[in-house]
Amino acid sequence: MTDATTTGPDWRALVIQHEQPTPPGLIEPWLLERGAEVEILRIDEEDPHDLNPRDYGLIVSLGSEFAAYEDSIAWISHESDLLRAATDADVPILGVCFGGQLLAQTLGGEVFRSKQEEIGWLPVETHDPELVSNGPWFQWHFDTFTAPPGARVLAETSVGPQAYAIGRSLGVQFHPEVTPEIMDAWVRAYRHELDEHGVDPDRLLEETHERRESARTTSRSLLDRFLERVARPRERA
User: Fold this and answer.
1) Which residue of the set 97, 118, 141, 156 is catalytic?
2) Active site (annotated) includes residue 235
3) Tell me: the pLDDT tens digits for 102-144?
4) Percent of the chain with pLDDT over 70
5) Which string of DSSP letters, residue by residue, matches 44-71?
6) Which of 117, 118, 156, 177 is catalytic?
7) 177: annotated active-site residue
């Protein structure tokens, strides 16, 4: 079988979505503009075991309300199997928040409850500003992780790693996909978390609208650099 690539008119991207309020947001139009055929897998509703990661030029794993270490949730182990198979097949992965944590855990890192949550538009300390800018990036998470063996940490905060590269894959703790529409859905679905941690949901929505254009520009730059420098597109053999 010939592996799929991230170049050419027929390359495919698999986007793994974990629940209804966590769609791909800015990532999907970016993929379409890059010429990809986008397939969205609701892994909480569909069994992924029939999928061959070699059929895709890129796999994107999105955020989730669940934790990567929740062993009682069957689809988490199913997804971990898929990410491992993709890594073994040298298929690039973009892991976002939960997706970045699960990729790290799958490849030998550790995911655990953080001593401090991160919620809001927050800057990061970047070690590779050409790839990952200092933001601010949108954060909403209660867990953190250790980068897997062999990974290069690209950005971090006092809470933990914010971006890492390993092989042709990239994991980020923040949300480059977020839009005002997604934020509105998250505030409605998870307002109790904001109330519990003293975050003003109205201000969060207002700031997200204010940053609509700048966040889009920053996210597209990250995604473009990821594809060009980390995933390293290759021509079909």
Assistant:
1) 97
2) no
3) 999 999 999 999 999 999 999 999 999 999 999 999 999 999 9
4) 95
5) TTS--TT--GGG-SEEEE---SS-TT-T
6) 177
7) yes
